[in-house]
UniProtKB/TrEMBL annotation:
Coiled coil: none annotated. This is Cationic peptide transport system ATP-binding protein. It comes from Idiomarina aquatica. One of its GO terms (molecular function) is ATP hydrolysis activity. It comes from the Bacteria. InterPro entries: AAA+_ATPase, ABC_transp_ATP-bind, ABC_transporter-like_ATP-bd, P-loop_NTPase.
Length: 254
């Protein structure tokens, strides 16, 4: 399979609290490289503080790397070109409650990426939003709703709607399923798998859950203290003896 995403030696260091040029830097992510094909799902795993969110944010362009490059369909992504990044790589965060503005309707919030990234008219944007709401299992009427009128699962569907409205090639989901109860989580996973089939989306899931990984991931990338120690196809990784750290990550919730 040809890769749509190629990440080469991506790294991130943070300065100390005051961000003075002379304060020491700590390495959150050592140079990390991986590839992702169209329609493929990558799971990023690792203990707390191992650099998972840092890597996810760098790929989605939410933060800039200290070094390294990202190529999408062979074309280098530049930090300054946020529009190119926004259209092709979208991120869903852990807390859909916090990522929605309580003062604005769902429709207004879903129109935002369309206003900044397309030339659609107001009427076209409204139509796109209503179509997208239907794609994620909500109703066109939810356009007029405010976030407090929706359940947690429905809010997560809105977060997914916002991510897919520009028809991206890649969605990065940082612990996006963790706040959901098991039955809602199963519905959201199935929705995301259906969207993957229909739209050919590639996913990068940051997750602590071995069950989710085994269910959806084609490849697993494991971080330990900011260093990538494994990047392998799920079936290969699960069918061979593992070092204790990996073994623990892959089985501890079972
Ligand atoms: N903005 C920041 N400033 C300074 N240090 C940071 C910043 N963001 C992350 N770090 C540090 O980088 C390291 C990796 O953090 P990161 O959030 O990527 O880990 P994680 O694997 O996602 O953890 P968790 O599972 O708890 O979310 C940690 O030591 C963290 O303290």
């Amino acid at each position: 399979m040809t890769s749509i995403l190629e990440v080469k030696n991506l790294s991130k260091s943070f300065r100390g609290r005051r961000d003075w040029p002379w304060s020491p830097k700590s390495v959150a992510l050592e140079p990390t490289s991986f590839t992702l094909a169209a329609g493929e799902t990558l799971a990023i795993m690792g203990e707390t503080g191992s650099g998972k969110s840092t890597l996810a944010k760098l790929v989605a362009g939410v933060d800039n790397p200290t070094s390294g490059d990202i190529y999408l369909n062979g074309q280098k992504l530049y930090d300054a070109n946020t529009k190119q990044r926004c259209q092709n790589i979208r991120m869903i965060f852990q807390d859909s409650e916090k990522s929605l503005n309580s003062q604005r309707t769902i429709g207004q919030q879903l129109e935002e990426p369309l206003i900044f990234n397309t030339r659609q008219t107001a009427q076209e944007r409204q139509n796109t939003v209503k179509q997208t709401l239907r794609k994620v299992g909500l109703l066109a009427e939810h356009y007029e709703f405010y976030p407090h009128m929706l359940s947690t699962g429905q809010k997560q569907r809105v977060a997914i709607a916002r991510a897919i409205s520009l028809e991206p090639q890649i969605i990065v989901a940082d612990e996006a399923l963790v706040a959901l109860d098991p039955s809602v989580r199963a519905q959201i996973i199935n929705l995301m798998l259906d969207l993957q089939q229909d739209m050919g989306i590639s996913y990068i899931f940051v997750t602590h859950s071995p069950q989710i990984v085994k269910h959806i991931a084609d490849k697993i990338l494991i971080l330990y203290r900011g260093k990538m120690i494994t990047f392998e196809k799920t079936e290969h990784l699960l069918n061979k003896p593992q070092q204790p750290y990996v073994e623990q990550l892959l089985h501890e919730h079972l």
